[in-house]
Every structure is written in C-alpha cells, then in structure tokens.
C-alpha cells in the first residue's frame, strides 16, 4: 500500500480544524509524507531527513529579514521536505510574501494555518496514520501479526529492529499503550502460560498500569508500565504480581526497570527478559524450585549467567568448562566418585553471603549437615570459602558449572540455547 500523501494528511480532522489554506505547491499534494514534525526555529531544516511535513508557529520568522526567510524555504526544499505549515494570526499576522513567493518558485507545498490547534494533536493524528499505513502495507510481507499493533511493535523491539522514538511512540499509541508520568517499564517473558490472562491479572494486581502484550510461538511477551504509586522495587513488585497471577508450572522472566522515555531502553528490557527466560528454561536453578506455583525470576537474578553466556553458549562452552575444571576440579572428581551435592551447596552458600542459616534453609538440611559439607569442600579445594579474595572466582566457577551442565542437557532434549 502506498505511503500516506500530503493530500491525505490535510484531510485529517485535527488538520482540517486548523483551517489550512494552500498558498503554494498545488501540484505536489500527492507526494508521500514520511513524518510530521513541529519546530519553533527557522533552522528546522537542519533536522530533516526528507519527506517530512514541518509545522511552525512562525516565531522564528517574525524578526527575520526577507533573505533569511527565503533561505529558510530554500533549505526546506533542498532537504526534501514534503511541505511547510505555518500558523498565522498570533506571532505572525500573515504569511510573509517572500515565503510564499519562494515556495511557489520551488514548488514546495506551503500551508497557512488560520486557527490555533495544538501541534501535538496534529502530529499525533498524522503520525499514527502514517504508522498504521506503513504497518498495513508490510504486514503480509514482513510480520505474521496481522493487525495486532502490540505484537508487531513488541516483535520489532525484542528483535532489535532499527526504529526511532517518534515511530515507537506513535505505534505504542496505536496499540493503546500510554505509560503514565513517572511509570517504570519492565519487559516480561512467559513460557507455559495459556494466552495473556496471566499478564492481565498481574497488571490488575499492580494497579492497572498500561501494558503491551502478545502471544508468540513458544512464549508470551509483554511490556508493563508499573505506576509511580506502586512503592518500592518495581522488579520485585512485578515478580510478586506474577507469582500470584501465572499458572502453576509456568516460567516467568522479568527484565530490568526503565523509564518511559527512550525506545532503546524498551528494547533492552524486553531482550533481557527473553534472554533470561531462555536461561531459566535451559539452566538448572541454583536453589531448589518451589514445588507448586510458577517459577519467577529476573534478569538481575541471572545476571552472572547472562554475562557468562554473552555471545552464545556454544561460543563460551569450552572456556567455561576449562574455568570450572581449573577452579573446582578436586570437587568435581569427588562428586563423580561419591554422590553428593557439594558444588550446589557451595554456590548457594556464596550467593547468600555465606550465611549458614539461610543456606541450610534453602537446601532443606540441618546446620550440622551444612557444616560437614563446607568442611569437605574446604578440605578438597585447600582453601577457606569465606576468603574475600576467593568469593568471586568460586561463585563464577560454580555458576559456570551449572550453565555448562544445563545447556548440555537442553541440547540433548532439543531445546534452544541463548544466542
């Protein structure tokens, strides 16, 4: 389907409400409009890439000389602008004749807007229409999501497609996503959940913030806006909401919290959620799973796993295996000959600040049994576990052991691994 034309933009209700009068460029009304921008400065041409309709209230033209005004129009035409719309009657009593003359000479569509309409209403309506036209034109070629604007936008963000902020905002508005002031956005990826019901229940539990959500092959992807009124840590708040909302047996991964501005941040939290979900499905957890209810984790909880597998598991597997053998070799040899749980005990102990009480509770063993395991570990490795200089190396090796062991099992079962 062809792109939206200037003629079609002029037919939009907010534009018609501004009572536009075409003063030049009558023969160019069918040129495509790539985007609609507003600018109060006459150097606005420097920010254009071509195909834009530029809106201005005329402040930048009031005190400019005749030649400056002509040069402004020439620069717009040279940058390939689709047209110029100038609000007249307030800052600018009427359209300067040299602006009209230069626009006619160059064939640049020039509009005088005779009634004040907030430019945000015009740009929002026009850019929504432009995005909707673009999506409808490519849906059968590029995306299988049909008219689902939320799914199309989530897919592009999660896949790291090259986008821009105005496009993302317009497409989000098309999908009904309006993050409120002060909202914090978090990507969420679910596996084993039936439809988007769990997402909707979690959103209600969080106070009804905005959400983009869609079902994809293999998982559900969502971008949640946690209202500013929700106190405390937004990641923990979202995790708690899904513990009560997701079905038993489902796996939920939560990305990091970002602000509502900046589409790259939206992309990053969605990608973090997807990567975390894949690790949660392929790597055994460090701690025993909850027997009932969903498994809910976060990107920061698996931060070490994500860092160890950066660039792909296959590319890191040999390096990780070598590190594990170098640091934990005697422990692995003992476990091979004597069935035990020493490596996991070591990792859980390190992850929880070497707290015997917390470690014993998580492993469901008595403190005396824990002390015996810790003594065995120290004897085999010839070191003290709580030595601050060793904590990072030991935790990394124990985590790498779980990653290597888990991804090997996943390949045997035919599961994906993180790319």
UniProtKB/TrEMBL annotation:
Coiled coil (residue ranges): none
Gene3D superfamilies noted in UniProt: PucR C-terminal helix-turn-helix domain (1.10.10.2840)
Stretches assigned to the Purine catabolism PurC-like domain: 8-130
Domain PucR C-terminal helix-turn-helix, residue spans: 342-394
PANTHER family: CARBOHYDRATE DIACID REGULATOR, DNA-BINDING TRANSCRIPTIONAL ACTIVATOR ADER
Protein name: PucR family transcriptional regulator
Species in which this protein is naturally found: Streptomyces sp. R39
Phylogenetic lineage: Bacteria, Bacillati, Actinomycetota, Actinomycetes, Kitasatosporales
């Amino acid at each position: 389907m062809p792109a939206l034309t200037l003629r079609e933009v002029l037919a939009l209700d907010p534009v018609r409400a501004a009572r536009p009068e075409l003063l030049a460029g009558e023969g160019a009304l069918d040129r495509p409009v790539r985007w609609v921008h507003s600018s109060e400065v006459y150097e606005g041409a420097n920010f254009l890439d071509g195909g834009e309709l530029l809106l201005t209230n005329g402040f930048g033209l009031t005190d400019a000389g005749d030649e400056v005004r002509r040069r402004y129009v020439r620069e717009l035409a040279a940058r390939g602008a689709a047209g110029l719309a100038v609000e007249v009657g307030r800052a600018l009593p009427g359209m300067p004749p040299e602006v009209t003359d230069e626009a006619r000479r160059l064939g640049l569509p020039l509009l005088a807007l005779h009634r004040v309409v907030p430019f945000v209403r015009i740009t929002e309506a026009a850019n929504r229409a432009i995005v909707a036209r673009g999506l409808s034109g490519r849906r059968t070629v590029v995306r299988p999501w049909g008219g689902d604007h939320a799914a199309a936008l989530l897919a592009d963000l999660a896949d790291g497609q090259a986008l821009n902020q105005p496009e993302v905002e317009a497409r989000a508005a098309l999908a009904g996503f309006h993050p409120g002031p002060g909202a914090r956005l978090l990507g969420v990826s679910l596996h084993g959940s039936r439809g988007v019901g769990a997402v909707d229940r979690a959103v209600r539990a969080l106070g009804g913030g905005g959400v983009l959500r869609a079902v994809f092959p293999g998982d559900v992807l969502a971008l949640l806006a946690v209202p500013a009124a929700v106190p405390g840590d937004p990641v923990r708040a979202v995790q708690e909401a899904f513990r009560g909302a997701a079905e038993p047996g489902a796996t939920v991964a939560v990305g990091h919290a970002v602000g509502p501005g900046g589409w790259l941040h939206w992309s990053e939290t969605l990608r973090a959620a997807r990567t975390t979900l894949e690790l949660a499905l392929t790597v055994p957890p460090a701690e025993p799973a909850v027997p009932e209810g969903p498994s809910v984790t976060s990107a920061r909880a698996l931060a070490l796993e994500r860092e160890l597998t950066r660039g792909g598991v296959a590319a890191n597997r040999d390096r990780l295996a070598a590190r594990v053998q170098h640091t934990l070799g005697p422990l692995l040899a003992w476990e091979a000959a004597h069935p035990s749980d020493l490596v996991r005990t070591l990792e859980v102990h390190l992850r929880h600040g070497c707290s015997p009480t917390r470690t014993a509770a998580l492993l469901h063993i008595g403190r005396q049994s824990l002390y015996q395991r810790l003594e065995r570990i120290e004897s085999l490795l010839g070191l003290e576990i709580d030595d601050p200089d060793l904590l990072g190396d030991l935790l990394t090796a124990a985590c790498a052991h779980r990653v290597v062991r888990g991804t090997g099992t996943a390949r045997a079962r035919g599961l994906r691994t993180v790319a």
